[in-house]
Design a protein that fits this description.
Pfam families: Neur_chan_LBD, Neur_chan_memb. It is found in: Postsynaptic cell membrane. It is a multi-pass membrane protein. The chain is α+β, with helices and mostly antiparallel strands. The chain folds into four domains: about 55 residues, no CATH class; about 80 residues, Acetylcholine Binding Protein, Chain: A; about 140 residues, Methane Monooxygenase Hydroxylase, Chain G, domain 1 (Up-down Bundle), CATH 1.20.58; about 45 residues, no CATH class. It has four helices and 15 strands. The strands form five sheets. Strands 2-7-11-8 form a four-stranded antiparallel sheet, with no helix packed on it. Helix 1 runs antiparallel to helix 2, helix 1 packs parallel to helix 3 and helix 2 runs antiparallel to helix 3. The longest helix is centred in the C-terminal third of the chain and has 47 residues. It starts with a strand and ends with a helix.
Length: about 325
């Protein structure tokens, strides 16, 4: 075996290999051209060159970020057909050195012959498919765990009193806006594909849960006010302007002897909620106040019962969604 001097590769024939899916490639020339040419006693030549190449890898992102990608590396002859040149894999033609990638794990590779016919003829071709599994650790920390915490935060409103509107409404709006911002950030560095990705399903469902929590409070609030309005109509009471808490209207008439007498006509009372009511008859204020207080407690208990049901339905539904989501995308085969 003889190592030939540098530059001898320019004086002999070398294969016209090119990378079909190349985007950019460079020879290494620091500090000397990193090429090797050896001549064996049986006449064989061994030519080696070190190249750094940037290759295109068509990705399918339906399972992103739980996906496994197949990235090809394609060698093909530019001008020689199969009648003159044949490419074959050597034993142990691919060797893996210890290295780590920030987002992927190299789990294996496959080799095959990709020779095909063109208009000018059949050209030799070899292809290596590298199997890259995306590391989910980054997405668990930056996407999944924060979104789970936001959904759980939206359930806090179920434990806040229904009368605390200034507390429950901002909490619901804050979680909805936070989920919208997080969804936009998670997709900002991805190509705009026309199909639904796994992360889109996750973000949409989390947004749906926090939005449903906000709608639940609206439902409870409307239900409680509707019940009170129905109660007012069924008790034949006519609201008037707020006045003093307890005063009488009198009607004066003249008797047969010319003397005036007062006849009580109506009594106006103000309820604890600030509503003035005309009451016919001799019902006193104490009894009306107890009736209204009892009704307010009853219909608020009904509204609170909806909150109690939501405390169970929302967590159980979210857990079921998680089971279906993770099982489906982990067991779904890659295309």
């Amino acid at each position: 075996m003889i190592k030939l001097e540098d530059g001898m590769w320019n004086k002999i024939w070398v294969p016209d290999v090119f990378f079909r899916n190349e985007k950019r490639a460079d020879f290494h020339s620091v500090t000397v051209p990193q090429r090797l040419l050896r001549l064996y006693s049986d006449g064989r030549l061994w030519y080696v060159s070190k190249i750094t190449a940037k290759l295109s890898c068509p990705m399918k992102l339906k399972k992103y970020p739980l996906d496994t990608q197949k990235c090809p590396f394609i060698f093909e002859s530019f001008g020689h057909t199969l009648e003159r040149v044949v490419y074959k894999w050597l034993p142990n033609s691919v060797e893996k050195e210890p290295f780590e990638m920030p987002q992927y794990q190299l789990i294996g590779w496959t080799q095959r012959d990709c020779s095909q016919n063109y208009t000018a003829g059949a050209f030799p071709c070899l292809q290596i498919d590298f199997l890259l599994k995306r590391d989910i650790g980054f997405y668990m920390i930056q996407v999944y765990i924060p979104s789970i915490l936001i959904v759980i935060l939206s359930w806090v409103s179920f434990w806040i009193d229904i009368d605390a509107v200034p507390a429950r409404v901002p909490l619901g709006l804050l979680t909805v806006l936070t989920m919208t911002t997080q969804s936009a950030g998670a997709n900002s560095h991805l190509p705009r594909v026309s199909y639904i990705k796994a992360i889109d399903v996750w973000m949409c469902m989390c947004l749906l849960f926090v939005f449903a929590s906000l709608l639940e409070f609206a439902l409870v609030n409307v239900y409680s006010r509707k019940e009170f309005n129905i109660w007012r109509r069924t008790n034949s009471m006519m609201p008037v302007q707020n006045g003093r808490k307890h005063h009488h209207h009198h009607h004066h008439r003249h008797g047969s002897d010319g003397a005036e007498e007062e006849i009580p006509l109506k009594k106006v009372v103000t309820t604890p909620s600030g509503i003035s009511l005309h009451m016919n008859g001799k019902s006193d204020y104490a009894s009306l106040r107890e009736d209204e207080k009892r009704f307010l407690i009853e219909h608020k208990q009904k509204a609170r019962h909806i909150d109690k049901i939501s405390r169970k339905i929302f967590p159980v539904s979210f857990i079921l969604f998680n089971v279906v989501y993770w099982v489906t995308y982990f067991m779904l085969p890659d295309d």
